[in-house]
Each structure stands twice: as C-alpha cells, then as structure tokens.
Specification:
Blueprint lengths: L13 H13 L3 H14 L5 H35 L4 H28 L7 H22 L2 H21 L5 H17 L3 H18 L5 H24 L10
C-alpha cells in the first residue's frame, strides 16, 4: 500500500484530482500522486493521453524510490555479511520491509491496469498499458525473482509487441518504448542476450528509415527513445554478458 501522508485528503472532483496529481508531481510527492491518479481511474478508467502519462509517472516514481532503496540495502546487506559484523540480519529485515512495499505497489498497478484501464482505449493505449504491466512484473522480479511474475512480464510484453506490430508504425514512440524495455527484459532478466540485442537492433534500424514520416512532436520523443536503445546496444556490445544499469524508459 502506498504510504501517503495521513493528513492528505483526496479532492472529490476529477479536475481537482488531476490538479492535485500535477501539484504532487511538482513537489515530488509521488505517493500522493498515486492516490490521486488511482482515484481518477476509479472515477472513469478511460484516460486521456495526459492522464495516462500522469498515471505512469506517479507509479514509476513511487516504485522507483523503493527500487533504489532495495538496491542500496541489498548491497549493504551483502557487505555486512561478508564482513561478518553481525548486522546483516538487521539490514535484511529492513530490506524485506522495502521489498514488501515495492511488491505491493507493483501488484496494485498491475491489477488496476488489468481490471480497469485495459478495458478501454485503442491500439496505442493497449500497447502503452500492456508494456506498463510488463514493467511492473519486471520490477517485482528484480527484487523477488518470482517466476510467476517473470512469466507474466513476458506475456504482457509479448501481447503489447503483437498489438504494436499490427497497429503502430515502427517509429511510433509508444512502440519504440516497448522495444526498449522488452529488449532490457530479455537481456537482464531472462539472460537471453541474443534476443535482447536482436530485438533492439532490428527495430532501431527499421525506425531510422521511418523517422522522417513522423509528426514533429512524435519525432522528438522517438529520437530520445532511439538514443536510449542505441546506448544500450553500445553497452551490450562492450559488456559481453555483464550487467547494464536498467537502460529503460
């Protein structure tokens, strides 16, 4: 469950919820932003592009704080264990608390997407939200190595990719964002290095040929995502099976 301030009161109207979410974003109060956007979805799950982006930003940052904390604590736990200081168990307990928070937030957004959001919208929305589902299953796996979430992540990403191939141009930013994150999932989580590299390289090469056909707003977003894909390919070519620092969108 998201740990917003007990003094925070949700607005009653949709417009006020959106305003409060944007205000919370500017203040970097992402747990309260999550509460606002969850209420927006429950009010009406058919989201505008602005609203879907707010939902994505809210949960990504809320869980992102826990992901960063989990990594730090895991490193400290390993170090304390190696030094045999007697503190490893204390760090483990704290790390497991953060892990539980992370897992709960992931489960919440996965279910919100499945039961509310995904019943609405067109092809672009389906790709965006199935990718988002895959991302939160992946975040869960990073901390817990839960095989069910690993399978669910692959299923969500695969669904999104099939929809994207059938309905979205290869240089569409939503499709490129999916390719970026799915290639990292293959490379980092499944350790299917060739699949991750081939997916990223093939789609990058094809998108280069189609960039000039995009509207100006999409062109800018697409080039930014393609730079991230290219950065990953560069790292992976040098890495030879090592680890990349979450080069996702």
């Amino acid at each position: 469950m998201v740990a917003a301030s007990p003094k925070f009161r949700l607005p009653s109207s949709r417009d006020d919820l959106i305003f409060a979410a944007k205000l919370a974003e500017q203040a970097e109060r992402y747990d309260e932003m999550v509460l606002c956007m969850k209420a927006v979805v429950k009010d009406n799950a058919k989201l505008s592009q602005d609203e879907r982006n707010l939902l994505s930003v809210a949960y990504k940052n809320s869980v992102g704080i826990r992901r960063a904390s989990w990594r730090i604590l895991s490193s400290i736990e390993q170090r304390e264990d190696q030094k045999q200081t007697g503190n490893a168990a204390k760090v483990k307990e704290y790390r497991e608390m953060v892990e539980q928070e992370l897992s709960e937030i992931c489960e919440e957004i996965i279910n919100l997407l499945e039961h509310d959001v995904l019943v609405h919208g067109g092809s672009d929305d389906r790709v965006f939200f199935k990718k988002m589902q895959g991302d939160y299953h992946r975040y869960h796996v990073e901390a817990t190595m839960d095989s069910k979430h690993k399978q669910a992540a692959l299923a969500a990403y695969t669904d999104a990719l099939e929809t994207a191939k059938s309905n979205l141009p290869v240089a569409n930013p939503t499709r490129l964002g999916l390719v970026l994150n799915l290639s990292v999932f293959y490379y980092e989580i499944l350790r299917n290095l060739d699949e991750g590299i081939n997916l990223a390289k093939t789609n990058f090469d094809e998108a280069v040929q189609e960039l000039e056909n995009l509207p100006e707003a999409e062109y800018k977003e697409a080039t930014l995502i393609m730079q991230l894909i290219r950065d990953n390919l560069t790292l992976w070519s040098e890495d030879e099976g090592g680890s990349v620092k979450d080069g996702t969108q």
